[in-house]
Amino acid sequence: MKLSENRRSFIKKAGALAGAFSINSFFNQIHAAAWQQLEKKYLHKSPMEIASDEDYWTVIQQGYSASSSPIIILNNGGVSPSPLAVQQAVERFNLMTNQGPSYYMWRILDQGRENLREELAKLGGCSPEEVAINRNATEALVTIIYGLDLQKGDEVIGSTQDYPNMMQAWQQRALRNGIVYKQLTFNFPSENDSEIVNAYRQAITSKTKVIHLTHVINWNGQIMPIQKIARMAHENGLEVIVDGAHSYGLLDFKIPDLEADYFGTSLHKYLSAPIGSGMLWIKKEKISKIWPLICAGDPKSDNIRKFENLGTRSFPIEQGIGEALNFHNAIGTKRKEERIRYLKDYWASKAEQIPGVKIHTSLKKEYSCALAGVSFDRLTPGELEGRLMRDFKIHTTPVSIANINCVRVSPHVYTKISDLDKLVDGLEKIARGV
After folding, report:
1. Contacts of 424 (CB under 8 A, 6+ apart)
2. Cα–Cα distance measured from residue 354 to residue 8, given in angstroms and rounded to the nearest whole number
3. Which partner for 138 in 27, 66, 165, 216 could form a disulfide, CB atoms 3.0-4.6 Å apart?
4. Per-residue pLDDT reduced to its tens digit, 233-249
5. pTM, whole model, 2 decimals?
6. Are 104 and 14 in contact (CB under 8 A)?
7. Whole-number Å distance between alpha carbons of 216 and 193
8. What DSSP character marks residue 256?
């Protein structure tokens, strides 16, 4: 009898906890009371004013275990750590799942996907019927790249500064299907939108079908003029794919306002969702024309869910996304954007005053936010990254692609000003040969 009661109690609690958007969410349990008081205090301050208010961000930092990491993590552009509420949700959902995987995955956790789809769409300013949940930007974008009906001789325009997985996918289509994959190279940083738009315009021929764009160049943080390029492309009868791995959950924008046709992103970067989570967006009228990577049913369906046929996957990770949305929304996209841009400007503006240091990123707000590149003429990116980690326990990432050679630095909301002071101090010591 006691065992039966315990089991019923567990099932009841499991069902309640499966809803990240309920009063029982982990975010509400951990943060709701304190953050409500915080919001009242800062309600009448603008995002720009809050960006430099360390008292506000100290509270936010406490929501991340990474804020007390033994190393300073400045490679959030690779993978961001999740807040404690997200970590605890995934752990609890994983424990729940292993009490009976086929029951708890399919009959409990899977029931939360539609609510999750709605919340992801709300953040993106689009319809839930245009959003598919998957594992990362690569999966989302390769679904489009392989799913488009392109014929031998059709041309696609991309850049040598796009993400390698996307470039390799287009190169495979060129090898397999005979399409022509053309790549532009830009001299970043650039503060000239017209120059960038004209470069794509001049590359168009009568055979061009698609332009592939990266919203935020992941190597140095350059924000591209996506809407301007998309408008130009549509005037020429082309389709536009956008890699938004470094923009969704960071920049304050709505996906439809980019005026692209397809958009893919990773949620484990600036949204701080569980590692291995992503999202695909396709304009509603385009869904039926894209072939799914994994087919189950009608491949020409106009239902966005046809792109979620992955078979068994990690339901704990998927439902953990909801808690990341709770955390993000409690801060607000504009506040997050302004804070992270402030952090980037804080260290980069100091670093560019150091003799021998070069910053590879514009510090104008229209052209960058979180990511910035730094280099010394006498050190390779690998050598500089190695020195920062070995001597100062600062984790960054070296970049050597096309004509971009630097160390990429990318803070997040949990990054402390003292962490960035240590970065600048480290760069000064390296410059002095200490």
Report:
1. 347, 350, 351, 354
2. 64
3. 165
4. 999 999 999 999 999 99
5. 0.93
6. yes
7. 14
8. G
